[in-house]
Amino acid sequence: MESWKYFEDFEDGFVFHFEVPALTKEEIISFARNYDPQRFHVDAVEAEKTHFGGLVASGFQTQLLCFQPFCRQVLNSSFAVGAPGIDELKWLRPWYPGEKLKGSVQLVKKRKSTSRNDRGYLEFLLQAGVDKSPVFSMLWTVIIMTREGIDPSGD
Amino acid sequence: MESWKYFEDFEDGFVFHFEVPALTKEEIISFARNYDPQRFHVDAVEAEKTHFGGLVASGFQTQLLCFQPFCRQVLNSSFAVGAPGIDELKWLRPWYPGEKLKGSVQLVKKRKSTSRNDRGYLEFLLQAGVDKSPVFSMLWTVIIMTREGIDPSGD
């Protein structure tokens, strides 16, 4: 567990970069049929009649696929224990099939709990886009254990 | 298309009630392996060591499964054309296997676009819980076409 990150290990200026491979029409339709079956996510012909001009990914699929790399590569080797919510989430423009996303997750605020020594709060801003065009942003807070919270003896 | 809803058809006081069947441990693990593989969502033994005391659903799975009935039964027979973002989202307590959720989606604000006659904005508050215990809430805005936006001739 030596390399696992505690609250104290996230320093000001922390930033994580990621990419999300382009989706196919089939991947967009398959996700949306389960969770968000609006016509512009599941039917290419109907989607053309809307202001999107064609099939676009569900915003929830965008959210999940942008979160996934940060979860696997950062949260999963930390003592994070969930999140109380999302402070702001924006779908800035549609995400079309064939477009690769590039993004980053920045630490924007860090504070220890005032009532409990065992935990702190990290506020992250995730931003992703296609080339220079912003597609998605999410600002949210992660609860994470301090060293004292995991090992009170200090060993 | 006679029964499809335009902006004008959503009236003050609109409310939609829904239920989400209880999840099994396997359903929680299967979703989280794809999108949110934190230890308390994918590993029952590791989850017991955290403050959750056992396996809990990914907050994103809660979000999707609470949105799904509203999407299928309301949005999908309307001229809704997406959402600019989420204004507030709260995970109020963990959702454990075996717990059925009950919830509602209320219309909390309605306004026509000031710059375009073809559309308006509906702000909805989704709230879901187990018995009297709140689990999840989400406040978000849906863009939806007006009658004039779909059929400018008025026919």
Q: Whole-number radius of gyration of chain A?
A: 18 Å
Number of strands of chain A: 5
Fraction in beta strands of chain A = 25-35%
**What structural class is derived from the secondary structure elements of chain A?**
alpha+beta
Task: Note poorly predicted spans of chain A.
Answer: none
**H/E element string of chain A?**
EHHHHEEEEH
Q: Order of strands in the sheet with the most strands of chain A?
A: 1-3-4-5-2
How would you describe this protein?
Two copies of one chain form a homodimer. Chain A has 155 residues and is of the alpha+beta class. Chain A has a single domain, classed as Hotdog Thioesterase (Thiol Ester Dehydrase, Chain A), CATH 3.10.129.10. Helix content of chain A is 25%, strand content 32%. The first copy, chain A, has five helices and five strands; from the N terminus they run βααααββββα. A five-stranded antiparallel β-sheet of chain A has the order 1-3-4-5-2. In chain A, a hairpin with a 2-residue loop joins β4 and β5. Chain A is elongated and about 65 Å long. The mean pLDDT of chain A is 95. At the A-B interface, α4 and β2 of A face α4 and β2 of B. β2 of chain A pairs antiparallel with β2 of chain B, so a sheet runs across the interface.
